[in-house]
Design brief:
Mean pLDDT: 87
CATH topology of the largest domain: Rossmann fold
Number of strands: 12
Number of helices: 15
Shape: elongated
Helix content: 40-55%
Order of helices and strands: HHHHEHEHEHEEHEHHHEHEHEHEHEE
CATH superfamily of the largest domain: Response regulator
Number of domains: 3
Distance between the termini: 72 Å
CATH architecture of the largest domain: 3-Layer(aba) Sandwich
Largest sheet: 6 strands, parallel
Low-confidence stretches: 52-59, 199-206, 347-352
Strand order of the largest sheet: 2-1-3-4-5-11
C-alpha cells in the first residue's frame, strides 16, 4: 500500500508550490482556473483528504456544521431535501467539513438543539432550511453571532435587505414557465393545485404558506392576461399536500373547466394525474408537478426541477467565505435566487391530448 498523499507530494507531482495546493483546497479563487482544475483532478485521483485534526488545533474550530433532518410523511415531499443534504455533504467533505444531522419536532426544539450542539459538539455553524417569515431560528442565531446560511428566503417585503445570507429557488419562475408551456399547447383554462392559506395551513403544510403563495403567483401572472379574475379564482384549489387530496382537487378543477393543471408539489400532481387517468382512461392528463422527484421520473410525469446541487454548492461557498475568509474581510450577506427548469416527459406529459380548438 502506498503512502498517504500529502500537500508536498501533490505539489511535487504537479510541479507547483505546496501553497498552491493549499489555496486550491481552501481559497480556490486565488488559483488560476487551469491550475485549479489540474489540482482538483489529482486530489480526486489520489484520494487526498485534509488533515482536519491538525487544522482544528491551528484554527480552534471543529469544521463541523449542523443541519436539521425533516421527516417525510409520504416518501415524496422531502425527496428534494434528501438530494440537498446529499449534495451538501459531498461539497462540504471536499473542503474538509462534515455535517452533524439531527431530527427534532419543531422550531423550538431546533433552537434547543442549536444550543446543545454548540456546547457539546462545538459546531462552527448551521445550515438552516425550510425558512419562513419572522423565522425564530435565524433570529436566535443572529442574536448570538452564530455563523449560518439558509436554504430559503426570509420571505420579507424586501428579501435583498436581509441581514443574513440565503440561497433559494425561484418557484414563481418555475410555475410561470410551466403555465406558459401549457398555453403554447392550446390550453387556456389551466388550473393550479396548491396548498391552503390561512387557518387551514397548519394541518396542510405548516411551513409552506410563503412557498405555496410564491408558486401560485407564478401561475397567476402567466395566466392572468388570458382569463378574468373570477375565472382564475375558480381554477385555483388549495388542499393538504398529500396524494389523495391531490386526486380530489383535480376533480374539483375539472368540474370548474380546467383542461390542464400546474401543481405546487409532485405529491399533488401524482394524485391529480392518477385520478384523471382513472376518470378519463382514454385521455392522458395534462398535469405538471413541482420538485421533479424520483417518483415523477418513474411514472413519466412532467415536473419543475429545482437545482438543489447548485444550491448546495452556493451555500458551501458562502459558508466557507464566512468561516475561512480573512478575519478583516468584509462579509456582507449574499442573496442568491436560482431559476428552476421545466422537465417534460412523454408519459402523462402535457403534450398528450391538447384541447380541440
Amino acid at each position: 500500500m502506498g503512502s498517504r498523499p500529502t500537500l508536498a507530494s501533490l505539489a511535487g507531482q504537479l510541479g507547483v508550490s505546496r501553497q498552491t495546493i493549499s489555496n486550491a483546497i481552501n481559497a480556490p479563487e486565488r488559483v488560476s482556473p487551469p491550475t485549479l482544475e489540474r489540482v482538483r483532478e489529482l486530489i480526486a485521483a489520489s484520494g487526498y483528504r485534509p488533515n482536519n485534526a491538525a487544522r482544528q488545533l491551528r484554527t480552534r474550530r471543529s469544521r463541523n456544521l449542523g443541519y436539521r433532518l425533516f421527516p417525510s410523511p409520504d416518501g415524496i415531499n422531502t425527496a428534494i431535501m434528501d438530494r440537498f443534504l446529499h449534495a451538501l455533504t459531498e461539497r462540504l467533505y471536499e473542503h474538509g467539513y462534515r455535517v452533524t444531522v439531527f431530527a427534532v419536532a419543531n422550531d423550538d426544539a431546533e433552537i434547543e438543539a442549536y444550543e446543545e450542539l454548540l456546547e457539546t459538539a462545538e459546531l462552527d455553524g448551521f445550515i438552516v432550511a425550510d425558512t419562513r417569515q419572522d423565522d425564530p431560528r435565524t433570529s436566535w442565531l443572529m442574536d448570538r453571532g452564530v455563523p449560518f446560511v439558509t436554504f430559503g428566503r426570509p420571505w420579507a417585503a424586501d428579501n435583498d435587505s436581509c441581514p443574513h445570507s440565503w440561497v433559494d429557488v425561484d418557484g414563481r419562475v418555475g410555475t410561470a414557465e410551466a403555465t406558459h408551456y401549457l398555453l403554447t399547447q392550446g390550453h387556456r383554462r389551466i388550473g393550479f393545485l396548491g396548498w391552503p392559506e390561512g387557518k387551514d395551513l397548519a394541518r396542510a403544510r405548516p411551513t409552506g404558506y410563503e412557498l405555496g403563495r410564491d408558486r401560485k403567483e407564478g401561475w397567476k401572472a402567466a395566466l392572468s392576461p388570458h382569463l378574468e379574475p373570477a375565472e382564475l379564482e375558480l381554477l385555483s384549489v388549495g388542499v393538504p399536500d398529500r396524494i389523495r387530496e391531490g386526486a380530489a382537487g383535480a376533480l374539483t378543477l375539472h368540474r370548474n373547466g380546467a383542461t390542464a393543471i400546474v401543481c405546487a408539489s409532485d405529491s399533488l400532481a401524482l394524485g391529480a394525474s392518477e385520478q384523471l387517468r382513472a376518470t378519463f382512461p382514454d385521455k392522458s392528463p395534462a398535469v405538471i408537478g413541482f420538485d421533479d422527484t424520483p417518483v415523477a421520473a418513474a411514472v413519466g410525469m412532467s415536473s419543475i426541477s429545482q437545482p438543489v446541487e447548485e444550491v448546495a454548492e452556493k451555500v458551501v461557498e458562502i459558508m466557507r467565505t464566512i468561516l475561512d475568509g480573512p478575519a478583516n474581510q468584509t462579509k456582507a450577506p449574499q442573496h442568491i435566487l436560482l431559476p428552476p427548469r421545466l422537465v417534460l416527459r412523454d408519459g402523462g406529459g402535457p403534450l398528450a391530448n391538447p384541447p380541440t380548438p
